[in-house]
Amino acid sequence: MSESLVQARGLTKKFGDFTAVDAVDFDIQPGEAFGFLGPNGAGKTSTMKMITTVSPITEGKMTVFGLDPASQGREIRSRLGVVPQEDNLDLELTVAENLYIYGRYHDMKKPEIMPRIDELLEFAQLTERRESRVEPLSGGMKRRLTIARALINDPDLIILDEPTTGLDPQARHLLWDRLYRLKREGATLVITTHYMDEAEQLCDRLVVMDQGKIVAEGSPRDLITRYATKEVVELRFGEEVKDQAVLQMAGLAERSEVLADRVLLYTEDSEQTQDGLNQKGIHPEQVLVRRSTLEDVFLRLTGRGLID
Amino acid sequence: MTALSRSFRYAESEVMAYRRTWRGTVITSFVNPVLFLAALGFGLGQFIDGGSEANLSVPFVTFVASGLMAANAMQNGAGDGSFPVMAGLIWRKNFHGTITTPLGPADIIWGRLIWGVGRLGFTLIVFAVIAVVFDALEIGPALLAIPPAILTGIAFTSVITAWTLTQDDGRSLSTMFRFAIVPLFLFSGTFFPISELPEWLEPVAYLTPLFHGVELVRKIALPDADATIVTSLPMWVHFGYLLVMATAGIYLSVKLLDGRVRE
Ligand SMILES: Nc1ncnc2c1ncn2[C@@H]1O[C@H](COP(=O)(O)OP(=O)(O)O)[C@@H](O)[C@H]1O
Ligand SMILES: [Mg+2]
Fold first, then answer.
1. What structural domains and CATH numbers belong to chain A?
2. ipTM entry
3. How close is the Cα of B123 to the center of ligand 2, in Å?
4. pTM of the entire structure?
5. Which residues have a Cβ under 8 Å from the Cβ of B209 and sit 6 or more positions away?
């Protein structure tokens, strides 16, 4: 096994009596895009803050680049790029100055920083906004600038805490495109998200987190194969007939989930399942066949949805 | 990077931001002190010095100008330790970003202090020049007044930074100015010797920090200051008071900032 960039064993974070991260184990390898997928409050940000050494570890062990976060935090941070959940750009500085000052914090000299700023503005598609103040930028632009800022020191590991939360779909896709590019260039990314599509698209490997614990680990494909079926038949019924219909469905699919507004049938063969429904005379108001997603994995593992 | 160079790196960011925000500080830093000097020093001074009961050993305007060096340092120091700190912590949150780089909380506190001293030094030089030009101070006293005034400023910045780091919103900061800084400004001997205070209030003044700043400035800058102008306390008391205040403030600021940003 190659040397892990981050290795956590029994990593725990407590705030008073409350355990936000509960004895998690994970290994992040060079060159991979590693995800933490989980709903709000799962403990993703707390975990990121421990990796970035800005939050002390309560219990357990972790190394980052083989170094100890408690005693070698500064050295670790000099090799990290951090995109926090909440933007904290300096609103009194211009776009370029925000990059410049972080270069300075990373002990870079002006002649080193200036060409890097040009490159990063190009990358973040903000070249035209170079001298603009940060305040009037759109949410997507601010996010891209925050990512550019995190890249100023050419980091060995890039931490992105909910990179696209709160962005509109177009801004999200633009951001994903930038992150793909980083991936192609061989960067190591750690991404937290509560969007299953984001995790599916961007992550080579991920852990599913819930209430401070890791409940599953694998590639998106793996997880879907392991915890869900190939396809899902989603049914909607009128309120009166739903319970009756559910009773009749036994045996039509590998597994079923009855949600407040719909019934999910997990099946390897949707045609067969639909035929079965017809034969039993079950006629839902609406039928939707789709492939399984990480959302289904999460539902299976926790009994709840990712977004509440 | 050494701790010192890290602090200077942080100070750089403040200088950069200041290039854009300095206009907002002109009134409090440069205009207000001169207005006070004009109105109270010259205006009221003429009234007092001209009267038969003039009882200060220096012209009243000199008395006020020397006091204002310290009071001005307090105002600037308090300003620097309050709103910008709240901004970095809560409003702009840039402290939270900074600590994800090799810089840490101590670098932020020291960097702010370095920047604050630089800015305060400049502010005080400007005020001193104005005081000399208008004959309120001679050149020697004007220059001598700067170092003790800077110490006063550091003492205030650091203690108020520490206090701000225990607060959660800007309202408490305005309250602090209204109920701490303004009374100190008026009753710490800047505009009249504290011996003029009601007897029961005099010991209270002895306990307040600006009093020690004002006394230290006058004792250093006005060598002929006699009992009509300053108290008989030795200089080291004032110096010690301000030094302890500054040291405690810096120490607490680092601890408190660490607690606020590294949860
Ligand atoms: N500073 C803190 N003090 C107390 N509780 C906290 C603190 N930070 C986070 N928590 C709690 O820890 C849990 C995990 O939070 P977080 O790591 O932010 O989750 P996520 O990023 O997955 O949404 C939440 O219940 C949150 O309220
Ligand atoms: Mg979070």
1. 6-219 (3.40.50.300), 229-291 (3.30.70.980)
2. 0.90
3. 43
4. 0.91
5. B74, B152, B155, B156, B159, B184, B241, B242, B245
